Amino acid sequence: xxxxxxxxxxxxxxxxxxxxxxxxxxxxxxxxxxxxxxxxxxxxxxxxxxxxxxxxxxxxxxxxxxxxxxxxxxxxxxxxxxxxxxxxxxxxxxxxxxxxxxxxxxxxxxxxxxxxxxxxxxxxxxxxxxxxxxxxxxxxxxxxxxxxxxxxxxxxxxxxxxxxxxxxxxxxxxxxxxxxxxxxxxxxxxxxxxxxxxxxxxxxxxxxxxxxxxxxxxxxxxxxxxxxxxxxxxxxxxxxxxxxxxxxxxxxxxxxxxxxxxxxxxxxxxxxxxxxxxxxxxxxxxxxxxxxxxxxxxxxxxxxxxxxxxxxxxxxxxxxxxxxxxxxxxxxxxxxxxxxxxxxxxxxxxxxxxxxxxxxxxxxxxxxxxxxxxxxxxxxxxxxxxxxxxxxxxxxxxxxxxxxxxxxxxxxxxxxxxxxxxxxxxxxxxxxxxxxxxxxxxxxxxxxxxxxxx
Length: 454
Fold this sequence. Notes:
The chain folds into two domains: 14-158 and 327-389, Periplasmic binding protein-like II (D-Maltodextrin-Binding Protein, domain 2); 160-325 and 393-452, D-Maltodextrin-Binding Protein, domain 2, CATH 3.40.190.10. The strands form three sheets. Strands 1, 2, 3, 6, 7, 8, 9 and 11 form an eight-stranded mixed beta sheet that branches. The protein has a two-stranded antiparallel ribbon with strand order 4-5. The protein has a two-stranded parallel sheet with strand order 10-12. Strand 4 and strand 5 form a beta hairpin. The chain contains 19 helices and twelve strands. It is of the alpha/beta class.
């Protein structure tokens, strides 16, 4: 833990120096006047750092649409992971920031990682840009509200809720229906029935060194309110019995039912959820809507079986729909960018009409209609290598019946909480402490982190 904290302190110092040496803030407007001004300027190239691949984000089409509207701004997409691995990309972003590498726009895969980099001084505040761009309210424009310490340092792009991917061929062979609504207990039963011939029923991709911490508290995330380690008021939510129940569920599936890939195998072999699912090593994975573009096959994983989708499981079936945590990509301006005005124009465009132009991910922009979302899903599946392999009705149903659960607001120390709980989880699953000891240690760790950061 000390090494991790020292690393972040060192990074904070370096990034702070870079930020102090950067140019003055520049104003922008995404309206007609801004476009007219742009035509009179010399061409500018901005560097956009992202984990996203062409398969998952259609960069060629997206950047072409932006450059057509803003011909004097060119976008150099720096793809940081061939696997579209957010953690691999994040390490490279941190290294680039620490070494003073020129970055303009940076994409993060979730709000905790974004909030932590805000705390490290990596990102430029957007409040002045927003004010000069009509003074719109971010909370009114986007489904996610990425405010940190009272300011905005990024805007949300794609919107991610959770669902379950199913190998429909394996379900059919086991005589199982595609669930339209279900509980975690039913998920456990499905996993047992789908475990055979040396293949597991399911795989949970996390936690891993503080990343993918959402796999620690799955039952907590199925609640309408306070669906996370922190409550919406910022206080600890670790007294919730659903935290212990989440750990107990994972323990039973792995140790007793033997229906889930062992945690020790995940960390020792550095497994990836795409590989596990698309190579049919497992029949079910809990994952996010960012996978929609890959369901009909990709260059890396051709479609070799039929895929269906089920809503995120619940503790009790709710007639309203399935509560699910929500997050998404957050795009910010690097504090050391020399082209902040142009970077802001790209971010604002990309997180609004750019999401529609991209046509591949569900958008956080509230002005995107339900009809546009359904069209996006239909078009995305139709453009896949093997669209006939996807049970489109189950996919649309799962997206339409999802209700966003209310979790805690982004805090700069969320990653510290995730890392502490990941450490406690690992002790439990590697047999170093009991379930009750893990729960007690987890409560204490979260409370200490909150107290330290007040």
